[in-house]
Every structure is written in C-alpha cells, then in structure tokens.
Protein: Helix-turn-helix transcriptional regulator
Amino acid sequence: MKNRLKVLRAERDLTQAQLSAALAVSRQTVNAIETGKFDPSLPLAFRISRLFELPIEEIFQDGDPL
Amino acid sequence: MKNRLKVLRAERDLTQAQLSAALAVSRQTVNAIETGKFDPSLPLAFRISRLFELPIEEIFQDGDPL
DNA sequence: TCTATATGTAAACTAAGCTTTACACTTTGA
DNA sequence: TCAAAGTGTAAAGCTTAGTTTACATATAGA
Structure:
C-alpha cells in the first residue's frame, strides 16, 4: 500500500518528530509508514486523515488486486 | 471504532461466510469486526470499502478523541 | 423431528503494528 | 569546526489483527 505521507508532511513543513507528536505515535512509526515498512492501523489512518484534512483514500492508495 | 458492516451486509443479504469469502478473510474475522472485537487492518478496510462501493469513512466511524 | 445453515465464541497460534532505546549518517548554522 | 536537528534503521518486546479448529446455540425447512 502506497501513501503520500512524506509529501503531505513536506507541504506542511513538518518534521517526522512533529508529525509523530501530533499523531501520538513514535517517530519510528511515522518513518516506517513513510518508507513503506508497514501500513498504519485503521485508527491511526483516521488520525492522519483528520490531521491533513483529507479522506483516507487520498492519502493511502491500495494496490490490492483482491 | 464503530462500523456499519452488519447493516451493509444485511442490506445485500449476505452471510458472514459469503462476505468473508469475498474479502478473503476467515468468517471469524468478519464476525469479530462486526461484533467490535477489533478493527480491520487498513488493507482490509480498503477491500471492504471497494466491495460495498462506499468510502471507508462511511463504513467506519472513528470515535477517537485524538 | 432431524438436518442444514447462520451466528457467536474460545483457545492457541502466527503475523503485523507499534514502543523504547540506541546508533549511524547527513545537513545546517553559530 | 563542531554541535544540533533531521532522517534511516535495528533489536527486543508488547499489543492487536487474523488464522485454524472446534463447539454451542438458534432458526428454518423437509
């Protein structure tokens, strides 16, 4: 699953540390999501969506064939 | 996190077994999500969203204060 | 009545999300 | 030049998502 987190964060001029604080997760979690190590949980995806004021579908793109 | 899965499934007259097959998960997973035992992963939420042709936000409602 | 279908739940397990601590590397600025 | 800030990554551990197997219960239909 791809995501636009890094770009959205850059647009708002936030560091990973600032974003992680705003999302109440560790910096490593933000980094791991940005670098594609894993996908956020659904609750975290909602928090990201609210923070950036964008629907989940505009932040995360599912390349799932199913 | 609340969801409208049970209602959406009923509207389409699907059994938990049929829905789980369509989503490629076990019936227990569908049941657990419907009964609020846990939230789906983001990839699974996308599959549910596509199957019901509804945005994730219209299926899952986040009651997260954060 | 007896059988099949649908649902709920439980235990034991694996896999994924997320944490803390820690370290390496690069870039920026005093 | 050297310290601070930003980023990437790794290990170990905990929590949550999802699995298989299995059983209990309810309802519908022949």
